[in-house]
Amino acid sequence: MSSSQSPRRDARRNHERLLIEAKHLFAERGIDAPLDELAARAGVGAGTVYRHFPNRDALVRELYDDAVADLAEFAPQFLNAETGWRAIELWLERVSGWLAASPHLQAVMARVAELDPDHRPAAEFAPMMDAVVARAQAEGLLRDDVTAVDLSVMVDMLGSLGQYGDAYLPFRRRQLGIVLDGLRARPDLTPLPGDGQAFDEFHDMSHARAPKRTPR
Fold first, then answer.
1. How far is Cα 133 from Cα 181, in angstroms, rounded to an integer?
2. Tell me: the pLDDT tens digits for 4-18?
3. Exposure string (b/e) for 110-144, b if CB count within 10 Å is 16 or more?
């Protein structure tokens, strides 16, 4: 191993450790938690934090983009599911479980929306999810008045159960079962009231849930 490889490996390891600890810190203390505490938790000096992330906003932006990359990894599971209904089941189960295990994300999403309102990488998933919904409806398994945004809201609702901590997560599947049963097509359905929300409106709403920062 050359002498240059070890420092690079150490830098990568520190970078990953900082991201992991930032998720825990922001979930516990809020997104404005001291970065000195992040350094302490990661076992590095404060200078190391700023070598990897020149400021808090850069750290938040990377956490956000990592989350979008996680979502992209789910996509093949949905697209390659044996049926459209199975894709719906996977969508609600996998993404809501990921959200429940990622309590830092709400504040990260809100901060990125403040920093760059036009940064909307999640929009690339909208056509794919529309196609999944259309497939399940064409199979006659998903009720016809449900939209992809409706399902995204349900994912958020199920994911919010993470606020109760790990002790509740084993029971999350009960709520998932109730939601899935309500989505199934059947002849005695009561039509849903009103029109579904547009994707852009949902995006703005979901990225503005954290409290606004207090001016300093």
1. 16
2. 557 688 889 999 999
3. bbbbeeeeeebebeebbeebeebbebbbeeebbbe
Altogether, the residues listed in the chain come to a count of 216
Nearest alpha carbon to residue 200 among 148, 142, 145: 148
Question: 155 with 162: CB under 8 angstroms?
Answer: no
Yes or no: say if 25 and 38 are a contact pair by the CB < 8 Å rule: yes
CATH superfamily of 1-54: Homeodomain-like (1.10.10.60)
To the nearest whole percent, how much of the chain has pLDDT over 90? Answer: 57
Each residue of 118-160: pLDDT tens digit? 888 888 889 999 999 999 999 999 999 999 999 999 999 998 8
Kindly report the CATH class assigned to 63-206. mainly alpha
Beta-carbon contacts of residue 142 (< 8 Å; ≥ 6 apart): 84, 85, 88, 133, 136, 183, 184, 185
Q: Which two tokens stand for residue 69?
A: 């990359």
What residues of the chain score a pLDDT lower than 70?
Answer: 1-5, 7, 208-216
Q: What is the DSSP letter of 92?
A: I
Q: To which H or E segment does residue 42 belong?
A: helix 35-42
Phi, psi of 142 (to 5 degrees): -105, 135
Domains 1-54 and 63-206 share a fold: no
